[in-house]
Specification:
Distance between the termini: 52 Å
CATH topology of one domain: Rna Polymerase Sigma Factor, Chain: A
CATH superfamily of one domain: RNA polymerase sigma factor, region 2, helix turn helix motif
Order of helices and strands: HHHHHHHHH
Structural class: mainly alpha
Largest sheet: none
Amino acid sequence: MATPDDALIQRCRAGEEAAFEEMVAAYHRRVWSIAYQMSGDPDDADDITQEAFVRVYLSVGRFREESSFSTWLYRITMNLCTDFLRRRRRHGDTISLDLVEAEGRGEARQTPVAAGSPAGTHNPSGSPLREAEAAELRARLKEAILSLPEYYRSVVVLRDIEGLSYREIASVLGCPEGTVMSRLFYAKRALREKLRSYVEG
């Protein structure tokens, strides 16, 4: 069954610039969110997102439609994230915990998040103390996620933050659904351990 993306892809293949702009507008927020959750830095997320759409622009003519367009786009994004993280490790760079702590105090740059992200919730009737505590927990959770190996981090980001199904994640990551479920189980166990002292304290 044809989807709105199919028509958009055909227009992109025909060289219609407006179609590509529509594609970027439709998917930019989620691509950026994945890149941000994986890299932990908004500027790096900007770079990864830009490169992802450049690659889509250059290769959309070779998209074989064996999966949905969104799955293909997220696969490109995750591959770029993996390459970025490997380069960062090779150069000995790490994400600054000052940035994570600044987010906990509400001082960091405002960043868009996916609709399913716990960081996207806001209760206007909540007390300042509760909001401060929630912000601190989000910062600690982000720090814990960033400390995970990337093969665990990726399933947490795609499942619990972006809301993809196991099948979609398996297609994005190129692994069996059982592997996705196993990685998610161990990732959540690791996160519980990392957050135990904060939650219980």
